[in-house]
Amino acid sequence: MAEPELDLSKKYDAVIIGSGAAGGMAAHVLTSHGLQVLLLEAGKKLDIEQELRSMEWPYDNAHRGGLPPGSHALNHNEYTIRRPPYGPGFEKSKNLYSYIGSSDYAKNIVVNERDNPYTGTNYAWVRARCLGGKTNIWGRLALRLSDYDFKAKDRDGYGENWPISYSDIAPYYDKVDLYLGITGVKENLPYLPDSLFQRPTKLNCAEVSLKQGIQKMGRVLTQYRAGVTTDGLKHNKYRSRCYGRGACSRKGGCDIHAAFDSPTGLIYPAMDTGNLTLRTNSVAREINVDPQTGKASGVHFTDSETMKDYTVRGKAVIVAASTLESARLLLLSKSRLYPNGLANSSGHVGHNFCEHIMGPYVAGQATDLVGKPPTLDDGRPGSFYLTRFRNLAEKHPKFIRGYGFEGGSGSGMFPPGTDSPGFGASFKEEIRRNQGSHIAMGAFGEVLSRYENFVDLDPLVKDKWGIPALRFHYKFGDNEHHMAADMKETAQEMFEAAGFKIIFVSDRVLTEGWSIHELGTARMGADPKTSVLNQFQQSHDVKNLFVVDGSGFVSASCQNPTWTIMALCWRSCDYLADQLAKNDL
Ligand SMILES: Cc1cc2nc3c(=O)[nH]c(=O)nc-3n(C[C@H](O)[C@H](O)[C@H](O)COP(=O)(O)OP(=O)(O)OC[C@H]3O[C@@H](n4cnc5c(N)ncnc54)[C@H](O)[C@@H]3O)c2cc1C
Ligand code: SF4
After folding, report:
1. Which of 97, 134, 356, 563 has most ligand 1 atoms within 8 Å of CB, for mutation?
2. Tens of pLDDT along 92-111?
3. What pTM was estimated for this model as a whole?
4. Strands (E), 342-416
5. Cα atoms in the 13 Å half-sphere on the side-chain side of 358
6. Do residues 209 and 386 make contact, with C-beta atoms less than 8 angstroms apart?
7. Which of 96, 110, 361, 575 has the fewest other C-beta atoms within 10 Å?
8. Rounded distance, CA 223 to CA 305, Å?
9. According to the model, what pLDDT value does residue 454 have?
């Protein structure tokens, strides 16, 4: 793989900050246009196959896959009781991670909370500082948005419409599908458009029962739409097709890269063009501005290991540090010309912050499957997705927008029920008899975008590199709590419709941030007074500045965001390349 060195004397066509889904996609698209691109990534390049070790057995791991002594991952109660920063109170743990860092496989991928503090309201902020960011361990549910989302205001009067329609982004969703691979089944749903799917996975017995049980209610259950290549990708030598090895469900990604991750899916192919320079361990701390033109001139970054400072120059700067880090960077980039931070004449940077609410779930049992012979069900990169059904044709009296469920069932290597009381031969026999019959699902719902939910810079607390920390001012509102109550009721009602025995139903809402789907801190819009970016994720204020991650989302919808982040980014980078070619940036 060609790996050019950073050239400080050069003016790159584009400098990209961040190498996750958004930064990787920007690198792919811009280098394909023949542009000279520099990619700055704050984290290190990990030997990711060594980290993930997808086929390692628990008994081959010193801690059965858990964290070694001296390390701790925050749990739900700790996030609820304590206020950030989460370091104080955990002095005994040298390494402190977010809840996702609870396995030996993810611990080096997520950040150490001590080095990367944040303050304000309770928030479970999951960050992955390494090449590829969170895509190394993402859950792979890859869904499209529709005009039910882009034009949601037209339907219920709340918030703002997006400055694009489904027809604007549909060709880019197609490009993402074909370039990265996605598995699923066509359903022809107007509110959840189909992708160009590769070979689908199969539903198992309990899942088919649920699908059939809810059909009479007009509700739809479909195979998990996973950003995984099941047929393989002839154009990508870094990724294998999925061999259904059943390792997907463990936090820690796919070490043969059948599941999409940004390095093998986007960055390494971009490096093969010879047009990409990658610099890891490079923490961007400010976007520089030319005081004469008011345009972005480059990026000031610190080497995370040597603490040495550098400045690089670019004709365009592309911020892709993930929704919250991108807002932080814009706010940090204050100057005489831009005293409130860069691209912030509207005062909306950091605001309208939205995501998905999680928590309510149901667990049950298809009793007709008890005692049946085991089936091989964990060799799949995902189980099922139960699509949104609220506020489509009818109007719910208590809340607007919608939610969907992710769930699964079947016989697996580590069957459900092993945590129930018992021991010995009779216990094992009981687990075997019941294993294929367990089924569970949990909801993800839209959190409304509100100006009052925002992040800003903490005036006192700084991270390990002396950069001001982010401060949260963020809470779920009444709409979300009414929605969560409904999630619990409908979950139970659907399991009953399928004839399942209910084992447990919960309406407990998880801490803000749990979904890891942060969005909206630099929203797009036509009006520069109420939005930060235009429809091409280009700053209204600074023509050669683009923010191509989830920051530009106008609303969260209830669908997982990553496929949309990448489709939008592709569209914006095509536009950027075109503008550069016309010398119009
Ligand atoms: C466990 C888990 C499960 C998930 N499941 C799903 C799912 O099923 N479906 C879905 O759609 N999404 C899912 N997500 C979310 C998904 O991973 C994100 O939407 C996606 O990665 C966002 O891409 P991004 O490029 O904006 O951010 P990231 O992937 O976080 O990448 C941002 C990069 O920027 C770097 N960076 C940050 N600050 C700086 C700086 N100052 N200077 C230089 N670099 C910087 C970071 O180190 C990082 O590498 C999941 C995430 C996790 C962790
Ligand atoms: S099931 Fe497929 S995508 Fe999942 S870890 Fe195994 S090979 Fe990778």
Report:
1. 134
2. 999 999 999 999 999 999 99
3. 0.98
4. 356-365, 384-386, 403-409
5. 21
6. no
7. 575
8. 44
9. 98
What does the pLDDT look like over 128-146, one tens digit per residue?
A: 999 999 999 999 999 999 9
- Listed in order, strand segments (DSSP E) in 172-270 are 221-223
Give residue 43's pLDDT band: very low, low, confident or very high (50, 70, 90).
very high
Does the Cβ of 142 fall within 6 Å of ligand 2? no
Whether 1 has a pLDDT exceeding 70, the answer reads: no
Output the DSSP codes for 515-537. T---B-TT-B-S-TTT-SB-TTS
Query: Please, which pLDDT band fits residue 246 given cuts at 50, 70 and 90?
Result: confident
pLDDT band at 250 (very low <50, low <70, confident <90, very high): low
Distance 257 CA to ligand 1 centre (A): 17
- Stated length of the chain: 585
Q: Given pLDDT bands bounded at 50, 70 and 90, which one contains residue 252?
A: low
Of 320, 363, 327, the residue nearest 342 (C-alpha): 327
Tell me the HSE value of 244 on the side-chain side, using a 13 A CA sphere: 14
Pocket test for ligand 1, best of 103, 126, 138, 141 (most atoms within 8 A of CB): 138
Neighbours of 269 (CB within 10 A): 23
Chain centroid to CA 62: how far? Answer: 30
| Residue 410 pLDDT level (bands cut at 50, 70, 90) | confident
Alpha-carbon distance of 532 to 321, in angstroms, equals 16
Ligand 1 atom 38 nearest Cα: 321
Q: Is 561 in the pocket of ligand 1 (CB under 6 A)?
A: yes
CA separation, residue 195 to residues 134, 227, 239, 497, 511 (Å):
22, 10, 20, 29, 32
The answer to whether residues 219 and 405 touch, using CB atoms and an 8 Å cutoff, is no
Query: Is the bond into 85 cis (omega within 30 degrees of 0)?
Result: yes
Write the CB contacts of 440 (distance below 8 Å, at least 6 apart in sequence): 361, 362, 363, 364, 407, 408, 409, 416
Question: What residues are paired with 363 via a beta bridge?
Answer: 440, 504
Centre of ligand 1 from the C-alpha of residue 128, in Å: 7
Atom of ligand 2 nearest to the CA of 247: 5
Mean pLDDT computed over every residue of the chain: 95
Find, among 135, 107, 105, the residue nearest to 41 by Cα.
135
On whether the CB atoms of residues 328 and 455 are closer than 8 A, the answer is yes
Q: Compute the distance from residue 321 Cα to the ligand 1 centre, in Å.
A: 8
User: pLDDT band at residue 251, thresholds of 50, 70 and 90?
Assistant: low
Using the mean position of ligand 1's atoms as its centre, give its distance from the Cα of residue 329 in Å.
16
Tens-place pLDDT, residues 313-348: 999 999 999 999 999 999 999 999 999 999 999 999
Give residue 201 CA to ligand 2 midpoint distance, Å. 12
